Amino acid sequence: MKIEQIYTGCLAHAAYYLESNGEVAIFDPLREVHPYIKKAEKAHSKIKYVFETHFHADFVSGHLDLAQKTGATIVYGPTAKPVFEATIAEDNQIFEVGSCKVKVIHTPGHTLESTTYLLIDENGKESGLITGDTLFIGDVGRPDLAQHVIADLTQEKLAGYLFDSLRNKIMPLSDDLIVYPNHGAGSACGKMMSKETTDTLGNQKRLNYALRPDMTKNEFIKAVLTGLTAPPAYFPKNVLMNIKGYESMDVVIERGEKSLSPTDFELVANETNALILDSRQTDDFAAGFIPNSINIGLDSNFAMWVGELIPDIKQEILLVTDEGKEEETITRLARVGYDHAIGFLKGGFEAWKLSEKDFETVDRISADEFAHKYSSEPLIVLDVRKKSEYDSEHIVNAVNIPLNEINDHLAEIPKDKPFILHCVGGYRSMIAASILKQRGWDNFVDVKGGFTAIAQTNVPKTAYVCPTTLL
Fold this sequence. Notes:
- The chain is 30% helix and 21% strand.
- By secondary structure, it is an alpha/beta fold.
- The protein has a 6-stranded mixed beta sheet, covered by helices on one side. Strands 7-8-9-10-11-12 form a 6-stranded mixed beta sheet.
- The protein is globular and about 70 Å long.
- Keywords: Metal-binding.
- This is MBL fold metallo-hydrolase.
């Protein structure tokens, strides 16, 4: 039996490839399915099953395309009600993959249909546990997401189900099982996941706060619900796509890969309500960009920030990318359900400049320049990091408006006074800068290198939470 974790860092997502005696099962695949198909073909094996641990919220799964292209059977755990054809397994049901077995263990809590899959090798030994969002390394799945899809569920009720699933279904299993979760650190599906992406169940019983053996159900519910932040707005929309289905990835790629000259790009932008999304790196965007475009760079958590900041999942999008990055950008949009890219700028931003069309820039200063200004004149400083980052340490008198909340607080940001913008390293503040530019602000500068660079200067810093008004 071969089990391989296929980890995608920008989503902190893990899919799994199980192979035995010419047959393959894929667990929780991403939207683009060709890598799984190629891997199976290289091994001269056939994909027999696509196992889903639950209806995912943070990405659109590739189950439908994978089944359509390979003839594989889609499998969900008990209580799942997909609109498309799938096998709804019974608790403890066994599926054979080559000479090994996959046992279904229904573990509701993160969602009602959440299911863990116990892997049993060719010798009959229980060797691994694919836990989905039920059990992470160092954490458990947040139990507040399904309530956004099913109205009569509460997070307290789901947390109680999760407690029972962990105590009655997971913790009695052997300590030497390898835990294979669906996510690692950086995912919004938990709050304190480890950077490690596998561990033994025995270690997790000892180290995971949620598996403490003497914890009562009430203590558990309080522990898992404390400190949860609001989930990204796109989560419920991805759940519904995973339940109801979606267009083939092939169609999405073909639509998005329409090459447009600068003149045609401008014409389409003017004739549609398309959003211009620039996925280049921060420095390149700051040096020049098409007016009204939004910068979300591919070099960090691109899909997450798209989901946080573009409210309409069906929004038409025109792309400005580095040359050769067009398909990657379309793919990463589609991973979180943004399927309506309608074309890209041929030749990238350089072609736009060569056509002598208007463009804008973002003014930036170094951390040393910021320190000099801070010591010599009153400054309005806008910090767009998360509240937890701000509370940990921030510049004295800086105001915190987290990036994911900026659209709700635009009225608090002055247009008649200059201000300075920063995040931790420059990625998020450039997104904020592009949003502000699009909305008519032009009275600010961005700190290159962000708080990380500022922290190396003598600017006073504190953990005191300052009033959140700029006016």
